[in-house]
Amino acid sequence: MLPTVKIGDTDVTRLICGGNPFSGFSHVSAELDREMVEYYTMPNLLKCLDACWANGINTFQSRGDRHQNRLYLEHRLGGGRMQWIAQTASEFRSIEGNIREIARYEPIAIYHHGSHVDNSWHKGEIDVVADIVKCIKDRGLPAGVGTHIPEVIEYAEEKGWETDFYMACFYNLARGYKSAPAQDQDAYARDKFQEGDPERMTQTMRQTPKPCIGFKIMAATRKCETDEMVKDTFQWSFDHIKDIDLVDVGMFPKHKDQVKQNAEFVREILA
């Protein structure tokens, strides 16, 4: 198993498998979205989770919708031992109802969807997120907040929210209202992966006493042109976060065994 840190009382490997590819969200193009959806049939999803475990990764993160609930259920019924950190699916009419349903599948933690959090920030309604955090805590689970905006984490800490961890995007893709790609075909065209963003977010992560999970560290494939670039990005990421922080990387092993390669890079870096 790769080195671990604690999320709540649970040991979680410092590399976890991200869920965007599982649901066909590439943050690149509609064509790559479609390729991911066609590849990730349920058998291939289950195969990826088994590969994660075999390569020393013990946790994945994905949306808490009916599709991903079913994935985790089938994995566990088949004897799988992967742990699940669930993200709220903010398209549901009732976020609280969504949290109650997710909790039935026994994830190790739930966090609130970053785009919904960030849009609440831009609308001046960020304090409603504190109530969602409390709803997660009321289910007896560690509660997190996802965001692309460093100031959101700083605000939550200043206000003493009940958060146990943060999902922190290395790139601020929410400098204004952020639409979902499922609702807006041009959403990806507005994603701006600016060079200074990882430095700003990792600074906030280091200053936050709670565990933070860095995601989109590879800028949604933009730092994956070569194996050396991938390894360098992992190295930079771990050099700039706390010892209790971890990274979340989406994996798409259709063309290359990304699960094995990512685990090998992280194992070497953390050795």
Q: How does the SSE layout of this entry go?
A:
Blueprint: E1 4-7, E2 10-13, E3 15-18, H1 30-39, H2 42-54, E4 59-63, H3 66-77, E5 83-87, H4 95-103, E6 109-112, H5 114-122, H6 128-138, E7 143-147, H7 150-158, E8 165-169, H8 197-207, E9 212-215, H9 227-239, E10 246-250, H10 258-270
Q: Strand-residue fraction?
A: 15-25%
As residue ranges, the low-confidence spans are none
Shape, principal axes of CA atoms:
globular
CATH superfamily: Phosphoenolpyruvate-binding domains
3D architecture notes:
With 271 residues, the protein is an alpha/beta fold. It contains 10 helices and 10 strands. The chain has helices at 30-39, 42-54, 66-77, 95-103, 114-122, 128-138, 150-158, 197-207, 227-239, 258-270, and strands spanning 4-7, 10-13, 15-18, 59-63, 83-87, 109-112, 143-147, 165-169, 212-215, 246-250. An 8-stranded parallel beta sheet has the order 3-10-9-8-7-6-5-4. The two termini are 12 Å apart. The mean pLDDT is 95.
